[in-house]
Amino acid sequence: MRKILKGDDVIVITGKDKGRRGTVRQVMEGRVIVDNVNVVKKHQKGNPNAGVPGGIIDKEMPIDISNLMVFNPATGKGDRIGIKTLDDGKKVRIFKSNGETV
């Protein structure tokens, strides 16, 4: 079971966007794309057939999972994630600090 999933609220713990919060939009192997985090300027060539204008655009690039923590609303900070097996055999993610499910 992955510890960071699509739709999670995360906080950046290191790098140029340290302290910024966002929602995970896409999860790849070891990297994720987070809304409004790791935004770069990209020079894009126009394509008149597809109606895409050329110019400089802002694009969100993937960020490594090790640079993120899941945001815990109870504490208001980033928190580590653990995996717990319930009595019925179902696995759930929990916050390490207070034991609540994510």
Oligomeric state: single chain
Strand residue percentage: over 45%
Helix content: under 10%
Helical segment count: 0
CATH top level class name: Mainly Beta
Question: In words, what does this structure look like?
Answer:
The protein has one domain (9-42, 55-95): SH3 type barrels (Roll). 0% of the residues lie in helices and 46% in strands. The chain has strands spanning 9-12, 21-27, 31-34, 39-44, 55-60, 63-64, 68-72, 77-79, 81-85, 91-95. The protein has a 6-stranded antiparallel beta sheet with strand order 6-3-2-1-7-8, with no helix packed on it. The two termini are 13 Å apart.
In short:
This protein is mostly beta strands and 102 residues long.
Secondary structure: elements and pairs:
Blueprint: E1 9-12, E2 21-27, E3 31-34, E4 39-44, E5 55-60, E6 63-64, E7 68-72, E8 77-79, E9 81-85, E10 91-95
Antiparallel strand pairs: 1-2, 1-7, 2-3, 3-6, 4-5, 7-8, 9-10
Key structural traits:
mainly beta; two-stranded antiparallel sheet; six-stranded antiparallel beta sheet; 102 residues; SH3 type barrels
